[in-house]
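User: what does the whole thing look like in 3D?
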Amino acid sequence: MAKKKKWEYSPAPESKQPAAIAGRYELFINGKWQKPSSSTYFNSINPATEEKLSEIATANETDVNKAVQAAKQAYEKYWKKISPTERGKYIFRIARIMQERARELAVTETLDGGKPIRESRDFDIPTAANHFFYYAGWADKLDFAFPNKKANSLGVAGQITPWNFPLLMAAWKIAPALATGNTVVLKPAETTSLTTLKLAEIIQEAELPPGVVNIITGDGQTGAWLTKHNDVNKIAFTGSTEVGKIIQRSLAGSQKKLTLELGGKGANIIFEDAPIDQAVEGVVNGIFFNQGHVCCAGSRLYVQESIAKKFIQKLKDRIGTLLVGDPMDKNTDIGAINSAQQLKTIQAYIKIGKAEGATFFETDCVLPKKGFFCRPTLFTNVAQSNRIAQEEIFGPVLSILTFRTDDEVIEKANNSPYGLSAGIWTDKGARIFNLSKRIRAGVIWANTYNLFDPTSPFGGYKESGFGREGGLQGLHPYVQLS
Amino acid sequence: MTGKKPVFNPQILNHPPVEQTGVEERSVRFTKRSIKGPSKMQGLELVLSMIDLTTLEGKDTPGKVNQLCTKAKHLHDHIPGLPTVAAICVYPSMVSVAKKALEGTKINVASVATAFPSGQSSLRIKLADTRLAVEQGADEVDMVISRGKFHAGEYAYVFDEIAAVKAACDKARLKVILETGELGTLDQVRKASTIAIAAGADFIKTSTGKIQSAATLPVTLVMLETIRDHFQKTGKKVGMKPAGGISKSKLALHYLVMVKETLGDVWLDKHWFRFGASSLANDVLMQVAKEKAGNYQSPNYFSID
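Assistant: Here's the predicted 3D structure for the full assembly of 787 residues, as structure tokens:
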């Protein structure tokens, strides 16, 4: 047969234009864009090209104070007083404008954070809008959420979001806070503030009363001022376990309510009777979704020893087809690592894994010359006592371990300081029930992985944090029942 | 006939289960690939070359078949350099007509056989039907499996029947139609695919096109995965033919994406992959013309057969 030209996908780049990113962003306080009292700005870069996208205001203690006071006043003056139905209308309006500006938000999210446009377009933005729609519905139905009780709002919620799902995490935080009648001061992660600032524009467009939502930007120090502020009644933090511990310590003795959504080292468990091809997909989704920057990533893979060899081969074949590169290309499966610092962390763990004696495998895809990229990586022959099986890497790196019996894998899955997520792949219903009862993890998926819905609560056990976001349970952290 | 008669080994039925939601999720991912520019053009030409242009009607006549064969040879002569379709697919009674019309071309003649489409007849009749097609000159035979026997759990019967038809095919390549729309679940699709491949199928094919729920992406994915697993175990390649319900270029390109990412580039060839379709060709031609001219042209410019 004559050698034919191989059929490859031509580049399919999304246009940058809809992002319409401004050259500079101020602080959104009391319904207005305000210059930071520090007069300092930091750069936000595109991790795929290392080019500057915009510069963003740094909020200092004075600005934090201003934002909290604005939220406090808005709470007393407007938000506490308006009817729950009106509250709901505002939230619905935010959701609708998000949908209208979905393309702009998706492109911005990808430029700013490095995630593939396919994910920001098909997952981040629609799921974020859905979250607002869902909690808008609860606003005037709190009596049904808490029968025979009265759900009182708390006041000012101080919220800090991570860099892996910037807009989605802002939605997870703001939507339930507003629905339950609280006002908000939110600080997005330093490397990915842009979509949250666009959300501030949307909130302005939705004509929320001034001060109901305030967005302040800056680094960890800004966050620390916010969590320590005396007029904040509730703190919600999503981020690293390390920072979570600092926040919890700093809040000790105060009246503030706290929810923490921290790290994880999710056990994804494959039994020999699993639907193998779909389990391979589940593993890929579990660890390579969003470059592995997912707190509930299935980063510890447990495969029953009888099928380990076959399964790992299938997994290797499959990840060979993953396209790594320009996040703006519609065909890209794995985009850019969020920051130079995170890439360094991931590379350090890859070195540790090799030094620990685990078998290293990466795909042979060609990485772009500029930007922060990492090939999909597997470690086989990993042991429970290896650091790469214990610590959160937060990148496209999967540690593969084997097991023999149900009891053994339950014990191994629980043998972790984390307890956020797990996956179970088996054809046996009884086994799913047995394992999901005995594995200490906030979310357990059966024959699927990384599936999210606003109606489903999300949160962790142990060092993965406490409190739940999403679903009816997601209302609890924002109310005082009487 | 060469080689030993294959013997049914019940162990082949111990295949991994299939989870429908997972298959559907994966199928959706194929449709997210954006096929633009040169890859679209190349893909469209590839699709054309893989089509089994089909007419399977009670009212088929030599006149109709002759016209269809002309279409197969001259898809759209206004655009030079286009490939022809892979084959013409007809009933056994029309094989000689098609064979004559396509003389001197590389276009194959495929014939359905074995009491198509229901398969509700005796093995003796089915073999006679197959021999008729082959004697008339069919290069390929599209048989149907006995779905009734399959549902009754008589897997050995289904297997032996395929093996017997394969023997009767002589040099013709055998496509085995599972009629997935009658099988009920993806687990059953996997099982039927496994049996067909073990019994000697050169191709496995989704549907007759005579009932609703013909080829779908999830069903085809399960069949492709069965082919892949067989290839990895034995090193032997088997072809795939989704048939029925694929009438748009965009969907056809999604199928190519699925083949590429499941089986690899080697299968992106008419020897290993076919589309059973009648109206797909013209939709592809309209897209090709649009790519060349920059705007869509009226369907009136494209001959219907």
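In plain terms: The CA atoms of residues 79 and 181 of chain A lie 6 Å apart. The longest helix of chain A spans residues 117-138.
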